[in-house]
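wait is this the right file?? whatever heres the structure
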């Protein structure tokens, strides 16, 4: 099996675990995330619009004191761009049916709330397979310190995420069970 096959198998088990955790609710996850992000007030933040069974960061995004953006996929194999978001802004369907602001300024985040399929104690994440966040984090980190916060259900933790040379580590992970700094 090659690394792509190993990652695909890991995704299957993580999607199932996430679906079960989603049914139980996210508990205090958004409040824990907002508390962590308070130390980053004033910095440009990227969140995301939760899809399907993803844990929802919207309350933490709304509480952030500073500009907030959401990811926009501009092209396959390219870093993400981030369009400014605010509570109640008009949204349209973007790539992969993710909601994005209909208009707004482009921002470059210093702190990113990163969705994921799975994660491990080392701080590696298993994404959806497009490499968008890995490319984006590599680009942003080449310019300046950039914080990546994985946001997930505790049930999405794997013993070890299969990684390759392109995978970017997280700086923290927030779940309904608490915060882990890495």
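ok assuming it is, sequence goes like this
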């Amino acid at each position: 099996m090659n690394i792509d096959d190993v990652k695909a198998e890991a995704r299957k088990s993580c999607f199932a675990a996430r679906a079960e955790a989603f049914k139980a609710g996210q508990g205090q996850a958004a409040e824990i995330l907002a508390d962590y992000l308070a130390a980053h007030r004033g910095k440009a933040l990227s969140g995301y619009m939760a899809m399907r069974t993803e844990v929802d960061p919207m309350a933490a995004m709304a509480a952030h004191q500073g500009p907030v953006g959401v990811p926009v996929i501009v092209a396959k194999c390219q870093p993400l761009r981030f369009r400014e978001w605010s509570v109640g802004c008009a949204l349209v369907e973007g790539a992969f049916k993710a909601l994005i602001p209909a208009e707004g300024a482009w921002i470059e985040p210093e702190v990113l709330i990163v969705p994921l399929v799975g994660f491990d104690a080392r701080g590696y994440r298993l994404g959806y397979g497009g490499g968008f966040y890995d490319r984006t984090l590599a680009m942003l980190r080449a310019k300046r310190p950039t914080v990546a916060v994985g946001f997930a259900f505790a049930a999405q933790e794997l013993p070890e995420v299969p990684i390759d040379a392109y995978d970017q580590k997280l700086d923290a992970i927030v779940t309904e069970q608490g915060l882990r700094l890495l």
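Residues 3-24 form the longest helix (22 residues). so i think its the right one actually
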